[in-house]
Structure formats: structure tokens, C-alpha cells
Write a structure and sequence with these properties.
alpha/beta, seven-stranded parallel sheet, two-stranded parallel sheet, globular
Length: 281
């Protein structure tokens, strides 16, 4: 039986829909089941990322589980570990985990370190695993640029192989449907090209007809400009290190794993704009 977490979020809900389209039964796991879309093919169960008898019970009968990483917070690794402990007790065999491109405990992007620790714990517990290491989302860059008229951050001329969220969802669904083909593999999910922030805003400006700028801030300027959003220190660190990771080259490099899994190339920036109907076909 397939289990899917995060079904009220963007990635999880899209995966749930793809699995339903195949007519495959699944279990949808949500912190707030009342917010989950109802499918005839799916049972909805309440879970949190914790190790409680209720969570263990909710995970019973699931063989392969899509574990969408928890909402960003200082306790995320602890939540992940407790949930994985519960999955082990429930008899889950295969974890498909939405990790991050270049996950490393010493990564520049601070939240990447959470993913490295979670990957290590999945292996430590002896699960069969498939790690989906998504790069930053093209969708996020597009939304931010169109909403603010700019992308602002200390990325310098660093390159980024950003990926379309729908591609990562399609990959996750394919893994769930054919898990034996992807046992104990780490898959790097990137777009088909490396682009700098300057190139991204130039393409967006050209295609949408809107003037979008890239402001290459210093690290100090980046922290200062983000103070208009009340946040905790760890959040500011995460936001700024998004760009410094790009500057030092940690988010560059094109993988062909999406093409290998889906049978067609990954979506580029223009594909994503068309798919979202932000520009004409």
C-alpha cells in the first residue's frame, strides 16, 4: 500500500492526484484531514510528525511512504526522526523522502543540513530508501520575481539548476508506482540548464513583458532588507543562505535523473511559464 504525506500541500496534493489518475489505492496522511481532497481511491488518516501510538496506528498497512519534509522550523530534524521511528514500528519498508540538492551537514544553505541528517537517519533505521534531492523551485523564483518586480539577494553570478515543482511531483509518483526500480537510490532533480539570477530575470522580463531586476546584495544588505518581515534568526539565516549557496556554486550542475525517470527532459523556465499559463503557448 502507498502512503502519501503532505497531501494538503502543493507537492503532496499533486502526487496524490497523479496516483489517483492511475486508479491505484493509497492512504493520504494529513495533519488536518479536513483540508485534504477526497478521492474514492484513497483513505485519509490523521498524522503528525511524531512518534505516538496514534501515528504508528495510522501508518500500519503502508509499505512505501512518500515522506514530504516537514515545514521549516528549528525542530524539524527531531520531528523527522520521531516520525521515522513511528514508521519503523508500523512496518513501513520503503521511504521516498523529499530531500534537497547537495544535502550535506556542512552545506552553505542552512536548511540543507536538516535533509542530510534525515537521510542519514533513514539509512540508520534500515529502511529501503529513495532520496529525491530537489533543487530550488523555478516556481518560487517566478512567483517572487513577478510579485516583487525583482529578485534580491547575495547570489553574485552564481549558477542555479532550478527545477519545476510539477517535475518533482511526477518523479515522486513514478517512484511510488515502480518502487523496485529505484531502491536505495539518491536522485538529483534539477532543471535542464544552469542559469544565473541575471539570466533568470532577463528571461522573465522578455517573456512576460514586465521589467524585472536582479539586485545583487551584500550579505549585510540581504539581512537588512529582510528585516521588513518579522522572523527569527534561523529564518533570516535560511533566506540569506539560499543565495550564498548559489554564489559559491553549491546549487549548480545539471542532472539527467528526471529524464531517466520520466522519459522526457526536465522542464525549463519557459516550459514552466507556459505550463502555469503565465505566457502564451
Amino acid at each position: 500500500m502507498i502512503g502519501i504525506t503532505g497531501v494538503t500541500g502543493k507537492l503532496g496534493s499533486y502526487v496524490a492526484n497523479l496516483i489517483d489518475q492511475k486508479g491505484i489505492a493509497s492512504v493520504h496522511l494529513a495533519r488536518s484531514p479536513e483540508r485534504a481532497k477526497i478521492y474514492a481511491s484513497a483513505e485519509i488518516r490523521r498524522i503528525s510528525y511524531a512518534n505516538t501510538p496514534e501515528v504508528v496506528e495510522a501508518l500500519k498497512g503502508i509499505d512505501i511512504l512518500l515522506m514530504v519534509s516537514a515545514r521549516e522550523n528549528p525542530e524539524r530534524v527531531k520531528e523527522h526522526k520521531e516520525f521515522l521511528d513511528a514508521a519503523k514500528l508500523a512496518g513501513v519498508e520503503h521511504i521516498v523522502y523529499t530531500s534537497f540538492y547537495g544535502a550535506d551537514e556542512k552545506a552553505t544553505f542552512t536548511l540543507s543540513r536538516d535533509h542530510a541528517q534525515t537521510e542519514a537517519y533513514i539509512k540508520e533505521l534500515g529502511f529501503t530508501y529513495t532520496f529525491l534531492r530537489d533543487n530550488f523551485y523555478l516556481d518560487f523564483l517566478i512567483d517572487m520575481a513577478l510579485e516583487n518586480g525583482e529578485i534580491r539577494g547575495p547570489a553574485g553570478s552564481g549558477l542555479l539548476s532550478a527545477v519545476a515543482r510539477k517535475d518533482t511531483s511526477r518523479v515522486a509518483a513514478e517512484i511510488l508506482l515502480n518502487p523496485k526500480d529505484w531502491k536505495n537510490q539518491t536522485l538529483n532533480l534539477t532543471g535542464p540548464e544552469d542559469l544565473s539570477m541575471e539570466e533568470i530575470v532577463a528571461l522573465l522580463s522578455k517573456e512576460t513583458g514586465k521589467a524585472i531586476a536582479y539586485v545583487d546584495e551584500t550579505v549585510e544588505e540581504a539581512y537588512e532588507s529582510r528585516k521588513k518581515w518579522p522572523a527569527q534568526t534561523w529564518e533570516y539565516d535560511a533566506w540569506v543562505s539560499t543565495y550564498t549557496a548559489i554564489k559559491v556554486g553549491e546549487q549548480a550542475g545539471v542532472s539527467t535523473d528526471i529524464e531517466k525517470i520520466l522519459g522526457h527532459p526536465a522542464s525549463n523556465l519557459l516550459d514552466t511559464l507556459r505550463d502555469r499559463k503565465l505566457i502564451e503557448e
